[in-house]
Fold this sequence. Notes:
- It is a single chain.
- By secondary structure, the protein is of the alpha/beta class.
- The chain has helices at residues 17-34, 54-64, 80-90, 110-118, 136-152, 169-176, 185-192, 215-229, 232-262, 269-301, and strands at 2-10, 39-47, 69-74, 95-98, 124-129, 161-168, 196-201, 309-312.
- The chain is built from 10 helices and 8 strands.
- It has an 8-stranded mixed β-sheet with strand order 7-5-6-4-1-2-3-8, sandwiched between helices.
- Helix 1 links the parallel strand 1 and strand 2.
- The model has no long low-confidence stretch (mean pLDDT 85).
- The chain binds uridine-5'-diphosphate and magnesium ion (MG).
Amino acid sequence: MKTISLIVPCHNEEQTINIYYDTTTAVFEQLNEQNVETYVPEFIFINDGSTDTTLDVLRKLQADHPETVHYISFSRNFGKEAAFSAGFDNASGDMVAVMDVDLQDPPELLLQMVPIVESGEYECVGSVQTTRKQNPIRAFLSSSFYKLINKMSDVEMKQNVRDYRLMSRKYVDAVLELPEYNRFTKGIFAWVGFETKYLEYEGVERSAGTSSWSIFELFEYSLEAVVDFSDVPLKMATIMGVIISFLSIIGLLFVVIRALAFGDAVSGWASTVSIILFLSGIQLFCLGIVGKYIGKIYLETKHRPAYVVEEKR
Ligand code: UDP
Ligand code: MG
């Protein structure tokens, strides 16, 4: 008998949890029909500061299935990354999967994933969504983001890879070794290495409820990703500084020589002001980049926990 932990973050998901539970339980029955080994699910739902009745739904589900269902309820919304963290910290399974509760990560895929991890060939099986009906602006932003992050960072992150994946114990232990507070899970998965097999599947709409990410939040998320996994912005700031200083010296020489040769009529005031404004802009920009990293260091040195648990069962 082997246990498969399922880490499932829930933020205002009262409508989807029971559908998810029923579907996944059915998938496990099918899984056990298809394999000699018996697999038991260990559901770990994380209530990430929901403001609807998610917690009540989880309490009830847990009371009905005390053997297989567990939940961790945060004291407030800490974000999906923190929810993953809590899940990893509490997962006891021989294999661990992370997945969304809205069935956009089809539980049926586990039927293919489990034998692959079981065979020992791969420590991790991930998932790539082929056609996700997305609004074109989001799609464009997303593809530009992946191009950018892959140029800027040492680890490769594939586009359209969902967080949905099944991992061996070995892989999970590696993930647990990373103690950082600022967690960009996709990057962490890429960072731990191990060969990962990606299964493709067609994207589906949410089973119910609404997505809780706004475009602004996605932008924030991308920024985190860049700063957590790359120091290229810092290098860019330095290079930009060097180039601009060099150009200013040339400009200065030009001005001085011109003044000596032709005398100084008070002209060029406008250009001076524009140069000053331009340089101040660049300086502020670079300060902003540096500040972002210092902010990260600041948070990291505080050694704050990634989440606070209010209730756990
Ligand atoms: N989620 C979470 N905390 C948040 C936002 C989302 O735990 O602050 C969960 C949500 O309940 C869902 C998963 O993360 O299970 C993915 O969210 P969603 O379906 O809204 O995102 P999308 O599928 O559109 O990327
Ligand atoms: Mg979703």
